[in-house]
Amino acid sequence: MSDAHRKAFVAESEEGITELNNALLDLESDPDDDEAMDSIFRIAHTLKGNASAMGYESVSELAHEMEDLLDEVREGNIDVDIELMDLLFDSVDYLDAMVSDIAEDGETDIDASGVEADLREKMETGSVSDGDGGGESGTTAPDDTADEPDDAASDDTTAEPADDTAAETVDDDGDDTADETATEAAEQPTADTGGDETETIGIDDLPDEIADAELETSEAVYRAEIGLGDTEMPGVEAIFIMQEIEDAYDRLGTDPAQDTIEDGDFDETFDVFVVDISASEIEGILGELGKVEFASVSPVTPNVDDPMTVAEAVESAGGAGDAESEPTAESGDADADPETAADDESDTAERDDTSSDADSKTDDSSDSSDDSGGGRSTPDSGGRSGPGSSGSDDADIQSVRVDVNQLDELYNLVEQLVTSRIKLRREMEREGIDSDNLDELDKITGNLQDTAMDMRLIPLSKIVDTFPRLVRDVARETGKQVNFTVTGEDIELDRTILTEIRDPLIHVLRNAVDHGVEPPEEREKKGKDPTGNVSLTATRDRDHVNIEVSDDGAGLDPEMLKEKAIEKGVKTESELERMEESEIYDLVFHPGFSTAEEVTDVSGRGVGMDVVHNTVKQLDGTVNVESELGEGTTVTLRLPVTVAIVKVMFVEVGGTEYGIPVKNIAEVTRADDIRTTKGDEIINHDDEIYPILRLSEALDEPSSVNGDGMLLRIREEHRKVALHCDKVIDQEEVVVKPLEGVLSGIPGLSGTAVLGDGDVVAVLDVVTL
């Protein structure tokens, strides 16, 4: 088994498990949701088929037991109750653990016999003896919080995202998909899709499910005969091919049956029947798939004038749907709609052209793609046209899959290019050479930088899609009733940032359910709905993303926070008296601080919010808490969309150069209006008082100013202060490297920047300075 096949299986399985969890949540909230039930059944069936084709029999057997039970539920023989849902969720946890094992070791030795026995018992008797998913074997479900951060873990560590394989490959359009064998496919010759080799198919040749299928007006059916050639895993290859077709078009069915195909039990070729698509479009899709060695496409029915079955459509067309019987309007039908007839003639002409072009198609796909003399081009040549294809847009390959290591390498090269650009400009200025000629290079470098950053962006949904199950489980553990909503999951963030914020968001969500939302009986006493609300909302604000986690629970009590702070020695009573309410709320980020009365499996150890604060800070973001007693709490994470390359203002202090991110600076002025009040230096700006912080004192540098110096007024959302320096040098975009190891905790420093002359400049953190 190739590594690429295993990765593809793992990625698709992980995506399916996430979908399965969310579909189960939908079914739990509405047992009559037929769409959710169909989705659950389909995903379980796909997992079973994929695992069987790959040889992971333990995964396949568990999915098969789930499928059998779900079939009984769908037939109405078993009710959707809490016992059933817990059992299904436990089963999904086992599947998740097995797939994780396969991702890491290539195999799994997890014993799921206990939960399989419970599934059978539930199906046969309608109940489970112990009701906990343990079954006769006494096994327990794998820890369903294994992908969640342990509150007892060190805050120096950050868990990897649950979707490890999905994080390994990304599309340049942000779409993370399962099939990592695209690289192999690109190296294989284009599939032979010669339409002239198609055999005639009649009513007797059609599978019953196809013959009985209903067609709507103007629909037509096509058969694609697909051959894979020599392959070790025909079932897996077939699954990927059918998924590609199903994602784009309405698939009626297959011959042989889908189960048989997924098991790999077919002789060289199999048939896929699709609706309402031209032959050239199907050929285009199949031609793009490197797994397909041979494909031929033929119409089964003409475009029907009225709703009817496929069998009736074949009969009305003369009993066959071969390449000679194109779906055109009947020439002898005086009542035929002229417009319909014209459209059908156009379809006929297009298919005739396709057929004749296929005759002249050479075996060399590269020659075909170079031929622009009117023949049907290969899918990526852009030469295909026809109904539903304006020009060649539909035929072009719109996205490619790139390993993230290549993206990281590209990004590193861009960083080096930015540094080299700075070095070149400084060298030219030092030699007195006009550097205006570098403006075009600056523009190109900037565009390349933006493109490289955009390629690393991944939608927030990549991590938040797993959160509904998390909230459900925490609510069950704590006896709460919670309605969870997510808004803005399409907002994109840099891959690195997205990976790092998963743990903080999990901590905040767990706190919202455990500490925020009250038990149902307590909420009813307060006149609230017994079901609490927790929401996660993401919004884009220029070059930042704000992620808010809100609950309508009890809220934070400032007086209790003060008592806890004094009790734990975090603050003195006099210090607390001088603090504003927003600063009181920020006490929750202090290490070891917790409002929980007792430690539980969910929370209460006092390290969760500390992890949130430290992680967000390391990402050059901010986190703040707003709360109203009795009404609820909102925790807001403000994060940069991308990392590393930032615009920095360079200043001089005592002969040493330092950098301050431009985004932190509101204004730069001369320091000629400083006043002293009660021994403290201040300035007045728009009737607002700003204290002065002299960088020479904060950084222990000698002041060498020969005058008043310069003031940098910091934006209030970061810190209400004005920084004093000797002089301002200039500003430019630089690559900022974060401090690591023991240096990462130094107050006032956020990272370093390498200048063009090789000098390393410290970049200041204005919040902790």
From TrEMBL:
Pfam families the UniProt entry points to: CheW, H-kinase_dim, HATPase_c, Hpt, P2
Domain CheW-like, chain residue ranges per copy: 645-769
GO process annotations (BP): chemotaxis
EC number(s) reported in the record: 2.7.13.3
Subcellular location(s) of the protein: Cytoplasm
Domain HPt: from-to ranges: 1-102
CDD domains: CheA_reg (cd00731), HATPase_CheA-like (cd16916), HPT (cd00088)
Catalytic activity: ATP + protein L-histidine = ADP + protein N-phospho-L-histidine
Basic and acidic residues: compositionally biased ranges: 348-364, 513-529
Annotated Histidine kinase domain residues: 436-643
Keyword annotations from UniProtKB, A to Z: ATP-binding, Chemotaxis, Cytoplasm, Kinase, Nucleotide-binding, Phosphoprotein, Transferase, Two-component regulatory system
Gene3D superfamilies cross-referenced by the UniProt entry: Histidine kinase CheA-like, homodimeric domain (1.10.287.560), Histidine kinase CheA-like, P2 response regulator-binding domain (3.30.70.1110), Histidine kinase-like ATPase, C-terminal domain (3.30.565.10), HPT domain (1.20.120.160), SH3 Domains (2.30.30.40)
Molecular-function GO terms, alphabetical: ATP binding; phosphorelay sensor kinase activity
GO cellular component: cytoplasm
Acyltransferase in keyword set: no
Biased composition (Low complexity): 183-193
Main location: cytoplasm
PANTHER family xrefs: CHEMOTAXIS PROTEIN CHEA, SENSOR HISTIDINE KINASE CHEA
Protein name, UniProt field: Chemotaxis protein CheA
